[in-house]
Amino acid sequence: MKARNSKARYCTSRLCGIPKYLLWAVLGLAVIVIVVPIAVMFGRKKPSTPKGTVLVPLYVYPSPGAWDPLLIAHATNTLHHDFKLTTTRITNHPRLNFTVVVNPASGPGLEPTPDSNYTREIPKLNQHANVRTVGYVSTSYTNRNISLALRDIETYSAWSENSTIAGLGLQGIFLDETPSQYQATSAKFLDTLADSITSQTGLGTDPLIIHNPGTIPDPRYMRSANLTVVFEGAYSTYRSHGFHKTMTAFQDSAHAGRDALACIVHSLPSTLDGHALTKDLRSSCGSAFITGLSKDYYASFWPGWLGFTDEMAA
User: Which PANTHER family did the record assign (predicted)?
Assistant: First the structure.
């Protein structure tokens, strides 16, 4: 009996002759080798493409129905008598932001307010929380008479003060044809416009200032803008110059976040799947616009508009 009890006491510290501390070490190693990698594998999330903003150069004249692809959705009967969505609207993607550039006459025009088609349609845009409307102003690479550019800014600002047309006010200015090569006089020109934009009460408390050099600019110009269009051109140019890598390098050298950059790509080949391009743009710039049109790029909506906005919202 004593021998049997002694054996039992001995096996509490050893299992089949193996010390307990060695068993615990083996068990711990098994957890690390097997359980942890499985947990990591199932717990790891795939990297997602960053959200982006749709930058819309809306140079489409707002005759009745012309802005419908942006504002409302139409359902049309197919041959099978079911309904098919043919265009998209801002409310379909409430979490996708739109920056819409309005351009009545290469600027606001000479009248205090634009014509009745604009005054009818702009308030429809402004009623959406995910939309910012901005007014087009030409700078002619800072060669334009600055007093004319300042007058355009003041005219846009005054739209919000028109008591007879509710919701006409804009939230910023799109400065077109800004320079890319640095000159002190050009920087002063743009600084003066920025000061005017931010001081205009009619453009809101935090107006959006967009520069459009259409190419990589000297980073010193970016101090007077919230957003800079670093590429505007044909898809063939974008591809041949490897512009995605160029933008990535520029972000690093200029210490610029993607939200400060925008890209506009036109003339997409009809055979091109825009999914990869949209994903490429979203990963490198905060705002983007693409179109398959090869002329009058911004004067009408292209057939791929629906797919592009869906991809930006994905």
Answer: FIBRONECTIN TYPE-III DOMAIN-CONTAINING PROTEIN-RELATED, PTHR35040
Report the predicted TM-score, pTM, of the whole model to 2 decimal places.
Answer: 0.81
Distance between start and end Cα atoms, the chain: 76
Strand-strand pairing, 83-85 and 75-77: antiparallel
In eight-state DSSP terms, residue 48 is: P
Model confidence pLDDT, tens digit, residues 52-102:
999 999 999 999 999 999 987 544 444 433 444 444 568 888 999 999 999
**CA–CA separation, 91 vs 89, rounded Å?**
5
User: Under 8 Å CB-to-CB from 173, ≥6 apart: which residues?
Assistant: 134, 135, 137, 153, 156, 193, 197, 203, 207, 208, 209, 210
Segment 38-49, tens digit of pLDDT: 444 444 545 566
What sign does the dihedral 115-116-121-122 (CA atoms) show? positive
193 and 150 in contact (C-beta within 8 Å)?
yes
Strand partners, 54: 98, 288
Q: CB burial class (10 A; 0-12, 13-18, 19+) of residue 6?
A: exposed
Strand boundaries in 118-236, DSSP class E: 131-138, 172-176, 208-212, 227-234
Q: Which two tokens stand for residue 138?
A: 């030409």
